[in-house]
Amino acid sequence: MSNPVFDKSPVFSERPPSGVTNPGAQATAAYPATDAATLQTMYDAPTATTRDTGRLTYDDVIIKTGGLFAVLLVAAAITWQLSDAMPGLWVGGMVVGLALGLVNAFKRQPSPALILLYGVAEGVFLGGLSKVYNDWYDGIVVQAVLATFATFAAALVLFRSGKVRVTPKFTRWLLVAMTGYLVFSLVNLVLVWTGVLGGWGLRGGGFGVVIGLLAVGMAAASLLVDFDAIKRGVERGAPAKMAWSAAFGLVVTLIWLYTEILRILAILRN
């Protein structure tokens, strides 16, 4: 799994939850024998839905993701307005968002409060960062937002159509590619911060655009893996509260996708 948010959760990962080898037998053993009258009453009752049984549904994921995204957008809009008076605010949001992201990514059980705080911190980060980019290149933020949603929609359509399958080999190659990209980004960051390279560092010019396009491709592929993990969680009957983990994982990938597209557009304009 490429996204640690889903990989660390047994209900979303490719491996079944530990200790569960035969779910049907486990469920049968959990309930004692019932008399005929009770069985008839149960038979006549309406069929229970996944919502009635407290299981994860796609609606849960959509609602939680929309709510988290709304919190992020409000925080971003406020920070955009305050950026001139508090120009360094977005840096604090970046640091806090990174810390909360790591905490939430490695928690076995989701914490709605921490996930919403992460949305606020990332909104502060993205709001300030977007304002800086938009001051440099007018209209670039609108282009990046539209490209991000277009990529998300394309990935969802491809996944729902079944034309792109998420296989173990696919996820392994994606993990290797993302690890290599992370190492490259850290090296470039050190070279720029130490003054060895200026501007975009190794990410400037045509080479930077190529690297950026590869990063966007990896983010789009990560969305496919995220969709597959959510589908697996729903089919396994994961608890409804895991919708918060699914929402968090999707927003993490969308933030990565947006920042990569923003960087590509800036390099092209530059």
Can you put this structure into words, describing what you see?
Residues 1-25 are annotated as: Disordered. This is Putative YccA/Bax inhibitor family protein. The chain crosses the membrane at residues 61-82, 88-106, 113-133, 139-159, 171-193, 205-225, 246-268. The chain has 270 residues and is mostly helical. It has one domain (4-16, 53-269). It has helices at residues 4-7, 23-29, 36-44, 58-82, 89-105, 112-136, 140-161, 168-193, 205-235, 243-269. The longest helix has 31 residues, at 205-235. It is globular. The model is unreliable at 20-31 (pLDDT under 50).
What descriptors fit this protein?
single chain, 270 residues, mainly alpha, 0% strand
Sheet of most strands: none
* Total tally of structural domains: 1
| Number of helices, where a helix is a run of at least 4 consecutive DSSP H or I residues | 10
Radius of gyration: 22 Å
Q: Which of globular, elongated, flat, extended, rod-shaped describes the shape?
A: globular
InterPro entries: BaxI_1-like (IPR010539)
Keywords: Membrane, Transmembrane, Transmembrane helix
Organism: Luteimicrobium subarcticum
Protein name: Putative YccA/Bax inhibitor family protein
